[in-house]
Design a protein that fits this description.
Shape: flat
Radius of gyration: 15 Å
Strand content: under 5%
Structural class: mainly alpha
Low-confidence stretches: none
Helix content: over 70%
Number of strands: 0
Distance between the termini: 53 Å
Order of helices and strands: HHH
Largest sheet: none
C-alpha cells in the first residue's frame, strides 16, 4: 500500500515541478520568478525525500538538507538584491 502512495506522490511532485518550472520561465515579474525558484527547490527536496523513502537510503536525506540550505540562502540573496540593488552592505 505504501508503494502505491509513493508512486502517486512521485507523480504529483513531478507535476508540481513542471508547473513551477513553467512559472519560472514565463513569470511576468521578477518576484514571481523568485517565488517559482523557491517552489522549485522545495519540490526537488520533496522528490529527494520520496526517493529516500522508496530506496530506504539515508543519503538522499542529507542531499535534501543541503539543497534546502543552499536554496534558502539563494532566495535570501536574490530578495536582498531585488530590494537593495546589492547583496553585501
Amino acid at each position: 500500500m505504501l508503494e502505491y502512495a509513493i508512486i502517486i506522490a512521485f507523480i504529483m511532485v513531478c507535476a508540481a515541478l513542471l508547473l513551477s518550472l513553467y512559472r519560472l520561465l514565463a513569470g511576468p515579474d521578477i518576484p514571481d520568478r523568485i517565488l517559482a525558484l523557491d517552489t522549485l527547490y522545495i519540490n526537488s527536496i520533496a522528490l529527494l525525500i520520496l526517493l529516500g523513502i522508496h530506496l530506504n537510503s539515508m543519503l538522499y536525506y542529507e542531499a535534501a538538507l543541503l539543497i534546502a540550505l543552499m536554496g534558502f540562502m539563494g532566495t535570501l540573496a536574490l530578495s536582498k538584491y531585488l530590494l537593495r540593488g546589492d547583496i553585501m552592505e
